[in-house]
Each structure stands twice: as C-alpha cells, then as structure tokens.
C-alpha cells in the first residue's frame, strides 16, 4: 500500500494506549469530516465500534490495512469542545482515548445504535375520549388524566410526557388503561418548549441577591467567560434558589444549563421543583433510566433541544453546543468520583469543560471540599457566602452526648431515648442516623472470639468480617457480596454462644418500634428501599405526623422533612480514628449535612451526637466553630503533612488471582518511575510526610486544568510510596496492591506519569495483572 492513501485513526475501547489505522469503508472518502463519527471495524475475529480520532496518511510500510465495515453517523457524534475535553481527559488520566470515549458515551451509542429520535412524546385525548370523559368515574386516575388533557387546550388537548410527569403521579398507568379503550393516544411532537408556565420563587434575601448578581456578572458581564464560583451556604440557606435564578438567567440568554447533583440528591422533589420554576422541559439523566432514555437525553442536548439537563456523575459528558452555565450541587460529594474504569472526577471535569466552553461553573455546598476552599482562599474561585438559613428556619442546637460507661440498649443511651420521646410527644419527628446498614456488623463467638470472615476477601493477616443480615439468619460480605447462612455453632469451638456484635439499623429499628409503639417507626436504608421509588413512597406515607425515622446516608440530604425536630447521630466513633487522611473531612461533612436536616421549617431543631470520645478535637472544633473552623484547622494539618490539596497524587493499582503478581508488576512500574524520583529528602533537610518538596504553591492546583505536561519539562521530582498491599488486600478472590505517586505540583506529577505509564503496557509483568491508574484518588 502506498503512503498517500488516506487512513482513519480509530479510537477503540481497548486497554491499549494507541489508535488503530483502518481504510475507510467502501464508498466513503477519508475526509476530515469523518473525525468524531463512529465506525464499525473488524478487530481480530471480532467487530468493534470506535470513534474516528483523526484522518491521515497510512503509515509507510505498514502492513495491509483492514477496511472499516461501516460509518455509523452522518455527522460527527463527538465534535468541538466535548471531543477536545475528552482528549484532554485521556491525557490527564493517562488512559487510552478509546476507553475514555467509551465511558463518556451513553451505552446505546457505545454499542453502535443510531442517534435516537428526540421527538417529544405527548398524550392526546381522542375524540372518543372527549365524548367518553363525563362517563369516567370522578376522582379516578383515568378521569384525572383525561381532565388534565382536556383542560390543557393547547395543541389539541395534548400534554408532553415530561409535563405530565410534573402534574400527576402514576399517569402512565392511567394513560395505559385509557389507551386500551382508544380514549387517548400517544403522539410524537417536534421537541417543543411546552412546559408549565414558570412559577415565581421567593424574593431573594440580601446574600442571595449578591450571589445571583455575581453569577449574572460572570455569565453576561463585561468579563463574561469561564469563572469558578463557590457558593458556600449553610444547609437551607437557599442555594437551590440561587441555582434556579442563575439558570433562569442562562435560559433567558438562550443558552443551555447543565446541573450535576449527587447520586442520592436527584429526587423527584428536586426535579419537580426545577420543572415548576423554570418553564422549560427539564431533562434528567441518571442510573435509574434505561439505555434508550439516557441516549435520548444525550441526543436532545446534542441537538440543542434540551435546555436544562439535570443529572448525576456521568451527566458531565452531556454535549452542550449552546452552553451557558454549569452548576454542581454538593460539590464535596464522594459520588462525583468514578471508582472504576476511567476514574474521572465529575466536578473537576466540569471545571475543565467550563474553561473550554468559556462559561461559569457554580459549585455549591454547605460543606465545601478542602480542595475548593483552598482554591477560594487562593483567589482562584470567587467565594460567595450564604451564612443564614433562608425564610424562618433557625440553625439547630448541637449537643454531644457522652456515653462512656452508660448502659446502651441497641447502642442507644437512655438520654438519647429520653430526648427522642420528648420530641415525639411534642409532635415532631426524630431521625436516628446510623452510618452503617445491616442488622449487626459482625458475628462473634462469645466463648473463643471467633468471628465470621469472608473467605474470598480475607487473608491470614487481615480479615474482612461478614455482616449479619436478614434478621440474623444470613451473613453477607459488604465488599464482594458473598452470602452464606449463619452457622448454628462456632466452627472453632462448637460453642452455641454466637452473638451479633455492634449495632446496625435493623437492631435500632427493633428497639425503637417497641419503645414508640404509638407512632410510626420507619427504617430507610438500601436494604429497605431497593426498588426504585420505594423511598419516595415510604416518606410520603410517613408524612409529617410525629414518628421516628432510622436512616443511613440515604437520608443525609435530598428529601425535605419539614417536621424533623431532632436528629440523633450514633456510631460516629469509627470515623474519628481512621487511617484514611480524608476520613476527618468526610465525617465532618456528614455530621454537618445530617445536622442540617433538623429544623428546616418553622420548628427549631436539635442535634445529639452520641460518642465515646466527647473531647475529640474534631467534634470540639465542629461544635465551637462550625465547618469552616474545622476546615481551617484541617487545611493547616494537610499542609504540614504534605497531603492534598498541598500535593498531587496518583495511585497505581494492580490485582490478580496470583498472590505475587500485583507486587511484581508494581515493583517493575516503580523501576520505570524511579528516574523521576526526588533526590534523597535528607539532602534537603528532611522529609515532610508524603511530599517533601512544597515548591511552587502558586501553580494552578486541583480542578483547574493544568497546561499540558511537557515530557522533558522542568524538574520532574516525585516521591514513590510502596508498593504495598491495598487497604483491603484481597477482594472477590483477587490479591490487590498499590503504588502511590506524589508530587508537589501537577506538572511534576504528570511529567513523570507521561514518561513512565506508556511503557507499563509492554511490561511482561503487566500481562499477569489487571492494573489501573487513578489520578487524584480519593480513597487511598
Ligand atoms: P439549600 O439549597 O441551601 O438547602 P433551598 O434553596 O432548598 O436551600 O432553600 C431552603 C428553603 O428555604 C426552601 O424551602 C426554600 O423555598 C426557602 N427559601 C429559599 N430562599 C428563600 C427566600 N429568599 N425567602 C424565603 N424562603 C426561601
Ligand atoms: Zn468459638
Ligand atoms: Zn467478600
């Protein structure tokens, strides 16, 4: 083949750091217009779907190129800013472009399905329906739906599905039954702006008005363009109101808005609030939707039809051809970090996109991440504060309950139970928050100390306890999901004295249900709300009557509980003594967020923290000075120890069935990285924890995209820690180890990774393991 024949360089979803050359499909010219289109190509005996990354001459002397089978798109699916940002992500994560694109595209498109139709679907009352309407039983669901359609008047008694969603629960069932009798029909309408007329919100208070003005300035002022704004407002201070105003401004300028929310924050409550207020269809995208629905939202955004997209982590990959604003609610939330595959951080990638798009990015939280606070302090982010709760609500009173030497029943102290009793008697609701699910964490033999361990995850040196579930009949491993029945007797000493140790939400529920038998007692955790919509149903039935809720993280935010007057937090002591350097930050955020659930409406709230460590500095600082006092103290400690955000980390992980393979691979990787290692810290007067060199703190840090690292550029000095067995050295039968890379600046870190990572793919040791690189890891 001669060198002048044009070829397609295709990014394929394979763990190989390269593109693959193909001849264009028969009858298609290799024109630049193909870049960003999907192609189906032969790969060995298989067929794969990839994306054309570039078009160029076939490499000289290359073996005969295979021909792509088909081009799947008439116009590039990936183009402009989104494609460029994804290329950036591939470089930044040191991950193959094909794998990055595969995780960014909705599953249906990844499989090669055509870009879906994005007609809006609507339901219309037929003529027969209009005639039959008066005969439908008054108050029945079909009648209510028929009435809604009849009253809509617009577009011949039709309403879009997204509008129906906001107006009526369970409308689908009613539509189905009316449809069977041909009284209504489903029709495709050109995507329209049909939506309920926007409702006005409350008048902004002074702090909100100031924040709204600052965001307006960033969107449309003289220096409009990319800006990061941290909306730092206590729970209930009206952050969502500020988002809604900013989005309304964005829509008024004819632009699209993207809103990211945490996994458990994307509630029907939130969506209907957005839909009611904005007056345009609001597209939601989250893991509860099927592949077709997700692809449709993506396509509607690509075509500019979706004006507001609200979604969880992966919504950060939504195309925004007419972008105007990106909002990230609860920016500190851990669910923004993807924990396998391409380990991106949705908040950080949103900032990269905002910069590339030239639009402001608004980060909101009552408990901002230390990274974001650090950026705000350094002047890289505008810092907008909402210091008071909006409306009537007062901040809750927080008390520490010392339970040392107190008799505990199901882990609850008499003082806690008393307080709960008083709150219920006064007509309020009580939330008992326990950060762990299951009946009881471990099964222990009272006679010999044996405890049930997962056979697939434990090693001789480190056990992984199985937890007791199913009312005490079943053991389950929380790490790999393995299940087994509870043994009748101790396998080691045959004693029958096997007892569940530690207290889970089910035990607490049992006790509270007995004690408060006159009011509803409801347990909310993943176990009790596995089915979609189950949580909403439970909470709706629960209502605002006096009662007791027992919950885990799922209840820490999202759902409004206006009659909640007392929050009791139990089981926090484990979080006070964790090896993870982020544990304190996570616990502080959780405590503040849970406390924020109390007293949201006109009733004052109270929070009780039950602990064996009432003098712990974290609790003392939080209670005396609030989250910001804690954050100040914690940032000082991070700086002294050389932890993020004062250092930059990457974690190389490896796992294998064979016990030695991960360490062997990581030792080989360490050899590749060692040319970049800092000279002995002792020559420079001692190490400062994991990062001995704190030079150049003025470099753009965390979240702001760095300039592309130069392969040879500057002093590439890093530190290597390990390899070591992972915190959980065995999981689902795999042995796991890790190597931590740290550097004082991003540039340094990426210089070293650029130099070493590509060569890892070719190591003989790499063939025996599954390995991955996590840039900016959150769990070490
Ligand atoms: P956040 O997002 O900070 O938790 P929200 O925006 O949800 O706060 O506001 C909390 C409550 O206060 C909501 O019920 C909201 O309607 C109300 N609220 C917000 N801003 C105002 C305001 N300016 N005046 C009166 N009520 C407000
Ligand atoms: Zn025993
Ligand atoms: Zn296990």
Automatic annotation (TrEMBL):
It catalyses: Couples ATP hydrolysis with the unwinding of duplex DNA by translocating in the 3'-5' direction; ATP + H2O = ADP + phosphate + H(+). GO terms for molecular function: hydrolase activity. Residues 684-729 are annotated as: Disordered. Zn(2+) 1 binds at residues 445, 448, 490, 493. Zn(2+) 2 binds at residues 454, 457, 477, 480. It is an enzyme of class 5 (isomerase). Its EC number is 5.6.2.4. Binds 2 zinc ions per subunit. Pfam families: DEAD, Helicase_C, PriA_3primeBD, PriA_C, Zn_ribbon_PriA. Initiates the restart of stalled replication forks, which reloads the replicative helicase on sites other than the origin of replication. Recognizes and binds to abandoned replication forks and remodels them to uncover a helicase loading site. Promotes assembly of the primosome at these replication forks. NCBIfam families: priA, PRK05580.1-4. This is Replication restart protein PriA. It comes from Luteimonas notoginsengisoli.
